[in-house]
Structure formats: structure tokens, C-alpha cells
Amino acid sequence: MNEKIWLSSPHMGESEFKNVKEAFETNWIAPLGPHVDGFERDLATYLGEGMHVAALSSGTAALHLALIILGVQAGDEVICQSMTFSASANPIAYQGATPVFVDSEEETWNMSPELLEVAIQDRIAKGKKPKAIIVVHLYGMPAQMDRIMAVADKYEIPVVEDAAEALGSSYKGQKLGTFGVLSILSFNGNKIITTSGGGALVSKNEEWIRKSRFLATQARDAAPHYQHSHIGYNYRMSNVCAGIGRGQMEVLDQRVEKRRSNYTFYKEAFADIDAIKFVEEPGAYFYSNRWLSTVLVEGDVTREDIRLHLEKDNIETRPLWKPMHLQPVFAEAPFYGDGTSERLFEQGLCLPSGSNLADADLDRVVAQLKQLYQEAKV
Ligand SMILES: *Cc1c(COP(=O)(O)O)cnc(C)c1O
């Protein structure tokens, strides 16, 4: 059996292990410590725009705290991009609120600004104004932020930006993760940089970030004994993980460069196969970190044929994320759509995209895929 080629695996640099060792040597093994403070500073500096950052145990935890800070409660409605990973929507349910799903547009595969407005108008007509809008930058591609923000501003609904897949991407030169009133990042093992598991909540509003740190450490009031006047959570990032994160920040730009070069490599390698389509950045001001290289598969060979063929050679690929409105768990949730995300899910495939892929790995993916199309011709 050939060696496994993963979809997206962790890729450590030079400093991560040194930082973890330092955490051990200084006995900062707790969910606080100098690496946590340092990682928050590194992220805030990287993002710019006067952002404040709380390092947390996961991106999901960050999204949960974002909804709590915005006052989302049982019975409320929250609009969410349908084409996303389930973690974008689950925190809505944690709060006892109802997700209202909105379809994607063709250019970026992210939330359609038109359908967003249709959804808002209809929810208001039905008696409930949505409490928040969760917009996602899927696979690192920026959503149509100007148009999304214009709709959100018109109806005065706060935008929470799910930038879990999009650290290093930008829109009009501004880093993703700085557009929402609150934004979230993920450092899960498969993301562009990882802390093994972790996330962050980001905002210009320093008071909110302070509050999120308070809620994330069990909401302990200032008292010598354990005193609580709020429900708390155990969502803080450990100092060991933050040490990994600080090392990863040193190589983030290189990771973006390599992921983008994977994408260009595939695009050139498959230029002669008409049935395989790539989705370009729709304008000069969309800059994707190309976290995952994705393709749409048209014609007789299906994306499932490709996936199974590559799997036989121990190469991992994955269909595009299955939209939330098609998920059994969200079957009852309202949905505003025009079939775009369903078609993308039918045709779309994520190719191996790690920043640690060797040229030989990429060649193997291309050779296997070309072989399948050769055989299909005969
Ligand atoms: C990974 C991911 C999350 C969740 O992040 P975790 O750190 O794994 O909890 C949320 N949204 C999207 C779009 C993601 O890809």
C-alpha cells in the first residue's frame, strides 16, 4: 500500500516544540499563562484593525460565546450560511435558538446577499427579526463582504464572522476575521495552523473580549471563595496549546503561500480535463488562503468515482461540506435557497491540500486522477 496522503494534516514549524518544552519547564500547564497572553497578542497584531482576541478551547466554543455575548436566547432565530461545517450552526442550538439557513451564491460558494435579504424580510414578516447573521468563508474564500454587510446594516442585525477556515485570507486588503462585530477562528488539527485543538474569539470591542474570557473560565466573580453570578463555561485555551500556536504564527504566511501553490499546481495539471472546474477568486480584492483546493466535477465521471478511485491508492479526498438544510438534525429549520449549495455538494470535491505535501504526493494525486479519465475514455 502506498503511503497515505491526507486531506489536510498538521504541519509544525521550528518553534512549536521549544515553546511546549518551555511551558513544561516553567510549569505553566494550566488554561492560562504567558503563551496564552502571547498568542492573543500575536493574533491581534497579525489581524490589525485594532482587534482584541480571546484564545479558547475551540472555534465552536468561540462561536457559542459570540452568541451569548449578543444575547441570543431560547426561542430566538439566528441566520446561518447553509453550506458550512456543522460547528457553525450547532451553537445556535446550544442556546435553544432556531437556525435559519441561507443558500450560497456561485462566485464564492458563501452566503448569497440576495437570499440573505429575502430571508430577513420573510422572518420579520413572520414576526421575528433574526438576532444575528453567521457568515462563513468556506475553504478560505472570502464571502461577498460589502454586500453582506450592507444588508446586515440595513436591518441592523449584527454579523458574526466564522473565519475558522480563513485565517490568512483577506478582502479588499483587510484580513478576514475583522469584519464581524465578533469573529471566530479555529486551530483544530486540520486547519491552516493548529494548536492541536483550539480557537479564538475576535472583536474590536475590548469589553466583549474581556467578558468572553470571564465566561470561558467558569464566570468566577472577584472573591477569595468560588462565587458566581453568571453561568460559566470551561472554554479557555491551555498554555501548552498556546505555545504551539505561537510557533505556528511564525510560519502562517508560508503555510498560506504553500496552500495557494497547491491550488495553482492542480489547476495547471488538470487544465486539459474540461470536466474538472476550478473556482477563481471573483475579483482582485478577494484573497483566499486556499485552505482546501476544491474542484467541481462535471460529465460522466462523478466526484464519487474520483473519490473512490483515489481512496484505492490511499489518497484522502472529501465531498464539499453537505449543506445544513440537508442534514437530518436540522430538517425542521427554515431555509431560503435556490439550489446552489445542493448542486455544489453534488459536484464538489476537496483534494489533498496540506502545506506539508511533497511534490511527489501532488504528482501521485494528479497521476491517479488522470488515469481514471484515461480509462473512462476507452
Ligand atoms: C472547523 C470549523 C469550525 C469549528 O472549529 P473547531 O475549532 O473545530 O471547534 C467552525 N466553522 C467552520 C466553518 C469550521 O471549518
TrEMBL record:
It comes from the Bacteria. CDD domains: AHBA_syn. Pfam families: DegT_DnrJ_EryC1. GO terms for molecular function: transaminase activity. Keywords: Aminotransferase, Pyridoxal phosphate, Transferase. The keyword Cell inner membrane does not apply. This is Aminotransferase class I/II-fold pyridoxal phosphate-dependent enzyme. The lineage of its organism: Bacteria, Pseudomonadati, Bacteroidota, Cytophagia, Cytophagales.
